[in-house]
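Need tokens for this chain, all 286 residues.
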Amino acid sequence: MKRRLLTVLLAGVLAAALTGCGGSDKGGDSGSDSGSGSEDSGSKSVKVAASATPHAEILEEAKGLLEAEGYELEVTVFNDYVQPNEVVESGDFDANYFQHIPYLESFNEEKGTHLVNAGGIHYEPFGIYPGTKKSLDELEEGDAIAVPNDTTNEARALLLLQDNGVITLKEGAGLNATVNDIEENVKNVEIVELEAAQVSRVVDEVAFVVLNGNYALEGGYSVKSDAIAYEKSDSEAAKTYVNVIAVKEGNEENEGIQALVKVLKSDDIKKFIDEKYDGAVIAFEE
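Here are the structure tokens for all 286 residues:
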């Protein structure tokens, strides 16, 4: 009797061990394949970490289109700008969609990660909006224009004013430009530097304001109908601050990532972006 009981117990232990091995193998098969798309029961998937707006919204719209390419798109929303990069670096996710290239490069340098741009998808343009005046043709000697005062946003605002003939910056100032880099200011326009969130609140006090997309929306402006001018897709700022699909270096050519980028740059997604965001988000044209 004891011998029979011992045999049964040993058989149970062996069966449990075999089940554990099987479970481990399955878990390995269903993990991320670092950008090529994960596989589970024969289906392929691409796991993307994203910010809620507009990134996750755009990805949700892309799900059906990517399914037609043979991939299931899994989107997870993150509320910070650190974890989405960490989970791609670790291989837990295939890609992320929330950041522009300067942030990606800064993150790599600071954290020692190896993330690269797999494709530029959209940018959120700066625009010149009316204050006390409705057209740049009305600009007069000594008029004031309000711009954001932080380094990146101020440079973009100044470049936009230069593109529209208001000022001329010193050669090479580019995306590091400040008011000290203004070389020509024919009408002696006063550049009023304010914290970005405050710029839209002085529209009754200055001739024009220069706003980025989210603050324009908060201020009740439509980029398409209200902006006097805005950053074009071929502008230096748009090319630099385009929001990208980021992957771990070496995975940018994987089929799942290429399919995702193809879908996000499709005419269907461009139409969705144009109709939903009213110019506050613009599909990037390379």
